[in-house]
Amino acid sequence: MVDLPHYYDQEPAVPSAPERVRLALPDVTLDLVTDRGVFSRGDIDPGTKLLLLEAPAPSSAGDALDLGCGYGPIALTLAHRAPAATVWAVDVNRRARDLTATNAEAAGLANVRAVGPDDVPDDVRFATIWSNPPIRIGKPALHDLLLRWLPRLAPDGRAALVVQKHLGADSLARWLTEQGFPTTRLQSRAGYRLLEIGSKQ
Ligand SMILES: C[S@@+](CC[C@H](N)C(=O)[O-])C[C@H]1O[C@@H](n2cnc3c(N)ncnc32)[C@H](O)[C@@H]1O
């Protein structure tokens, strides 16, 4: 049994206490509301920042996925960089989804859909997947999660995942390759690996 952090709750019980953070990137600055019961309250996670600084440009149109959107820093950056794309911001945590929707509206990003995992239509295929995935759910659950979403990459789609080295980034990369998803390491910095993954061969 994995002891999950409270920010993976579907309905966080901790009282709300919103706090603003500024996400400053070379191409965009976003003021975002975070909250208790949601990952990385009051801060931009360093892994998320690495992904946003170093991931290759997303596909300019089609559908994109932020798997585990939290309060939305990845989804909103995707939506800004690919204004003609539809960005599916998926999270099990309702408070996280609500924050992402509110933050997208405040930023004028109408192309973000903040939804639960079962609310993405089955026929949607993703040109881009970006994720700081929920590693702490444990390896079997993480593998199930990735095997649910990565097969939905479009044939020429690309995924970028950021994972801490000490939480198993290198063994995850090997496992992804064994599953038939070509995986390369794009960056290694400050204890994080940025992995790029292609569609299944
Ligand atoms: C490491 S956090 C990243 C949050 C946000 N993208 C960021 O960069 O700040 C991972 C997120 O995955 C969510 N999550 C956990 N299990 C999930 C699942 N089965 N499906 C979708 N999201 C999940 C958690 O609630 C959490 O918000």
Give structural notes:
The structure is a single chain. This protein has 201 residues and is of the alpha/beta class. It has one domain (17-198): Vaccinia Virus protein VP39 (Rossmann fold, 3-Layer(aba) Sandwich), CATH 3.40.50. The protein is built from five helices and nine strands; from the N terminus they run ββαβαβαββαβαββ. It has helices spanning 46-54, 73-81, 94-106, 139-149, 169-178; strands at residues 19-24, 29-34, 61-67, 84-90, 112-115, 126-131, 153-164, 183-189, 192-198. The strands form two sheets. The protein has a seven-stranded mixed β-sheet, with helices on both faces. The protein has a two-stranded antiparallel ribbon with strand order 1-2. α2 (73-81) links the parallel β3 (61-67) and β4 (84-90). The longest helix has 13 residues, at 94-106. The protein is globular. The protein starts with 18 loop residues before the first strand and ends with a strand. The model has no long low-confidence stretch (mean pLDDT 95). The structure holds S-adenosylmethionine (SAM).
